[in-house]
Amino acid sequence: MAILFRSINTRPTFLLLFRSISASVRFIPNPNSQSFSTAPKSHQKNLIPVSNLFQRYGFPPSEIPHFLKKNQYLLNSNTSEIEKSLKILSSLNSSQDFVASVLCSCPSVLELNFWEKWQLDSSELGISNVSLMAIRNILEVSRKFDLKPDDVSRCIKCLKRLGFTENTVIRVLEAVPMVLMSSEDKICGKTEFLIRLGIQKNEIDQVVCSFPGVLAFGVENRLKLLIDEFEGLGFSLSEVRREVIRDPRILGLENGEFSQCLKLLKSLRCRLPIKENIFRHGAFRAAYEVKIRVDCLRKHGLIYREAFTVLWKEPRVILYEIEEIEKKIEFLVQEMEFDVQCLVEVPEYLGVHLGKQIVPRFNVIKHLRSIGGLGDEVGLRDLIKLSRLRFYNRYVKPYPGCEQTYGRFGGGSEVRNRHPVGMWKLFKPQNGLLVSGAILFLLVYCPCQGLLSPSSPGHAPGCLKAVEQRGSYSESAYLKGFFFVRICPQESCPQNEMLFE
Fold it and tell me: Does the keyword Cytoplasm apply (predicted)?
């Protein structure tokens, strides 16, 4: 009876649970499907016409379902109004990707009310040959802040009155389109700040074209504080002006960031030639080079503290180009399959040559791993910090197949001399050479008495005794680095004064 009562009570609950689960599963759309079967019936009737319309204006067919799913209000819109908006939009730029690029970033520009104000050609704004990115940014800002073509044209004319070329105006619209919201007084205030810094009017266009972001910064709360920081660190305005013209991105430094880079340079503990090479163009440029490399390391996943640690432990990274650093990090992550955090533990990886050391060693380890020749996994520290000879003796020499893979010490590779043959080898006499009528004196250099006289070879404390031989030459003494003078019996012979090393 109890069992029957339990089954009666639980059966309705189980059925209700099953029905709720089945009902929810029935309406879950397939993420891989490109159909709109889950859309309401009122939407489905406009699905095919709207999809064909977007495809006709250059929208990729594979992206149409996802785009319409995110903007389902378009399926309720009038198809003729969408077509009018697409026609006006496509008239602004003839590129096939222009419509899709604008709509993916700002689909609300399809509203016909917006295009009723923007039925004009791009040349009417005051610039010609406008890039795709500039037009897209103009439309996005205009749609967001309800700007009219007259507002955009007024800002462009203001930039041209200040002496900016059309190419610079386009660069500004591509990088900082919010300048359209700035008043003429604010834009003029930033150019006047550059003039007070010592930059000539004909140089301002070059600075803004290289770094348009300067027009997005405030003068009082950003730019002046940065210049005050430079002066507080002991740099003159003339030096700052010279470096800004060379690389205007310096004006994009955060307040206090430059001081940290300079502090790192002062605390470096490295060999003197490396330090001199870092400061070869002055402390200002060296600190900015540190900042660029910190940004490069942060872009690949390190935080500020870790990036500064890597540069402090391996100062040679400051001397390498950004392209070389990125190639090494890309090879580390994609080919070697190490995490970028390994650079904090083994910063020496960024200080060695990629093609001459990293790639050959990794190829050897990869080959040994494929044939099962590695007992323990080789970490990045063992791969980089071992000397060439120790790495060769440990991973290459015991395995004949690795000779050609390593390449550095392979049997078929030709080892070139790093230095030319010394002069002492050219003048080295043969073993047992008999010199008729001449005497060879082996001389010893004494720190206290200087070079001993050949006529009276003697012995000095801490020095070897000079050897006098007639008709032959002591090979063992020569190999010890002695100097020798060839003396002719005739006193007037000039060879008496020749000294060979």
Answer: no
Which sign, positive or negative, has the C-alpha torsion 129, 131, 137, 143?
positive
With a cut of 50, say whether residue 25 has pLDDT above it.
no
Instruction: Give 170-199 pLDDT, tens digit per residue.
Output: 999 999 999 999 888 999 999 999 999 999
Q: Which residue has the tokens 């610079």?
A: 168
Helix, strand, coil percentages in the chain from 3-state DSSP, rounded to 5: 60, 5, 35
Non-local (6+) Cβ contacts of 392 within 8 A are 406, 408, 409
Q: 218, 194 in Cβ contact below 8 A? A: no
Q: Give 106-152 pLDDT, tens digit per residue.
A: 887 777 777 777 766 556 677 777 788 888 888 888 888 888 888 88
Residues 88/119, Cβ–Cβ less than 8 Å: yes
Q: By C-alpha distance, which of 311, 308, 347 is closest to 329?
A: 347
Question: Mapping DSSP to helix (H, G, I), strand (E, B) and coil, where does residue 439 land?
Answer: strand
State the first-to-last Cα distance of the chain, in angstroms, to the nearest integer. 117
Are the C-beta atoms of residues 86 and 53 closer than 8 Å to each other? yes
pLDDT for residue 422: 54
Query: In this predicted model, what pLDDT tens digit does every residue of 463-488 receive, in sequence order?
Result: 333 333 333 333 333 333 443 443 44
Better pLDDT: 351 or 28: 351
Asked if residues 368 and 399 have their Cβ atoms less than 8 Å apart, the reply is yes
Report strand pairing: 483-487 vs 445-446: unpaired
Counting every residue written for the chain, the total comes to: 501
pLDDT at 396 over 50: yes
Instruction: Characterize the bridge pairing of strands 439-443 and 468-470.
Output: antiparallel
Looking up tokens 């650093």, which residue turns up? 325
Q: Which residues contact 163 (CB under 8 A, 6 or more apart)?
A: 201, 202, 204, 205
